[in-house]
């Protein structure tokens, strides 16, 4: 009997609460509709107030949280919008609208790498989704056209089996007007073979149409032994067809006792979306005044992008040299070398990236040199 009375009381209370629950739901739907209408009318402040009012009643209201994040983005309140989208994705990792919203917030702030990273995450849940793919293509196009400053600072170390280890630094600053022109200034210091070399560099690049580019660079190192007193390089690059890029370089280097002319044709083949293969041949003529020597070299390198912000490379080169200026053992002796190459590049934090490259050189005169370049790159 008591049990029946209990169920009767609960049923009676539930019946009394139905109008209140219905009214609350109707009020929520009305506020949501008003907020959406305010958003469409670009009255973003009113929309924010309405969404925030809904969240006071229920802080987990999904539609209100999503709506508020979008309105904050449209009103250029990017920091708050970004935080709200991130919270939604944390609670709902596969949320389609939140992934699209956060990628657009990054895109509108020109944070292209972050935007593309979010879209790649979205494609893992929604493969071949047309909206995500279209937005990804749009961001990639904007990224490729963005004017850019780049500063690179590197530490140079060379372990030499027949002399003391060499140390140096390199830095380079460039400004690039995408698809138009670029200008770069650099400095290099190298302490090697008991010679301390200071080198200045200038580089200018131009685009010729949409498929060709020409760059010119010059270096000066007055009164040095281990590097050219001056050098000049011309580089022509031509996109043959979409996956193939041809390049042709000419380099003139003037040392104290010899002039070197080099011609270097090369080809880069993007044979898969994440892979590229580079090949280059080098013909060098060394002019010692009293004699001339010709050398032939080649190199191949494989590049892999396992992620949008990571590049790995591995390669091999065979070089033939007429001399090594400043070599304390035999500065004018010729030799050939096998080079085993490796590289790693990682944009680990927004515009900041890490660079590492190594070259282990084995010579046919029973000597070897291991070179390491490492440092940071900053883009803005």
The overall average pLDDT, rounded, is 90
SS strand fraction: over 45%
The low-confidence runs, each spanning 5 or more residues with pLDDT under 50, are: 16-24
Return the structural class: alpha+beta
Count of DSSP H/I helices: 7
Taken in chain order, the helices and strands follow as HHHHHHHEEEEEEEEEEEEEE
Describe the strand arrangement of the main beta sheet, using strand numbers.
1-2-3-4-5-6-7-8-9-10-11-12-13-14
Explain the overall architecture.
- The protein has 380 residues and is α+β, with helices and mostly antiparallel strands.
- The chain folds into two domains: 114 residues, Alpha Horseshoe (Serine Threonine Protein Phosphatase 5, Tetratricopeptide repeat), CATH 1.25.40.10; 232 residues, Porin (Beta Barrel).
- The chain is 32% helix and 47% strand.
- The chain is built from seven helices and 14 strands.
- The chain has a 14-stranded antiparallel β-barrel with strand order 1-2-3-4-5-6-7-8-9-10-11-12-13-14.
- The chain is elongated and about 95 Å long.
- The relative contact order is 0.07.
- About 2% of the residues have low confidence.
């Amino acid at each position: 009997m008591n049990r029946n009375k209990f169920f009767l009381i609960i049923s009676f209370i539930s019946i009394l609460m139905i109008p209140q629950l219905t009214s609350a739901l109707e009020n929520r739907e009305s506020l949501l509709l008003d907020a959406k209408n305010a958003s469409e009318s670009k009255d973003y402040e009113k929309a924010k107030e309405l969404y925030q009012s809904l969240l006071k009643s229920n802080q987990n209201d999904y539609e209100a949280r999503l709506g508020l994040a979008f309105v904050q983005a449209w009103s250029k309140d990017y920091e708050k919008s970004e935080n709200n989208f991130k919270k939604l994705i944390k609670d709902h990792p596969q949320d389609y609208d939140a992934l699209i919203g956060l990628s657009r917030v990054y895109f509108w702030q020109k944070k292209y790498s972050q935007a593309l990273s979010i879209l790649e995450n979205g494609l893992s849940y929604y493969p071949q989704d047309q909206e995500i793919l279209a937005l990804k293509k749009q961001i990639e196009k904007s990224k490729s056209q963005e004017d850019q400053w780049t500063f690179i600072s590197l530490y140079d170390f060379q372990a030499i089996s027949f002399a003391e280890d060499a140390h140096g630094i390199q830095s380079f600053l460039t400004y690039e007007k995408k698809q138009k022109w670029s200008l770069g200034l650099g400095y290099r210091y190298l302490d090697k073979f008991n010679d301390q070399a200071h080198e200045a560099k200038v580089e200018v690049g131009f685009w010729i149409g949409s498929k060709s580019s020409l760059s010119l660079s010059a270096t000066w190192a007055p009164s040095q032994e281990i590097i050219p007193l001056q050098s000049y390089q011309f580089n022509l690059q031509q996109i043959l067809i979409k996956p193939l890029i041809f390049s042709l370089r000419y380099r003139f280097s003037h040392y104290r006792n010899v002039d070197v002319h080099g011609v270097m044709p090369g080809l880069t083949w993007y044979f898969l979306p994440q892979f590229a293969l580079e090949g280059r041949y080098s013909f060098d003529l060394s002019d010692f005044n009293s004699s001339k020597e010709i050398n032939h070299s080649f190199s191949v390198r494989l590049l892999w992008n396992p992620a949008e912000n990571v590049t790995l490379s591995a390669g091999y080169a065979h070089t033939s040299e007429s001399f090594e200026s400043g070599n304390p053992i035999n500065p004018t002796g010729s030799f050939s070398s096998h080079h085993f190459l490796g590289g790693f590049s990682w944009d680990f934090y927004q515009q900041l990236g890490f660079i590492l490259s190594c070259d282990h050189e084995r010579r046919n005169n029973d000597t070897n040199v291991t070179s390491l370049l490492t440092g940071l790159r900053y883009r803005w």
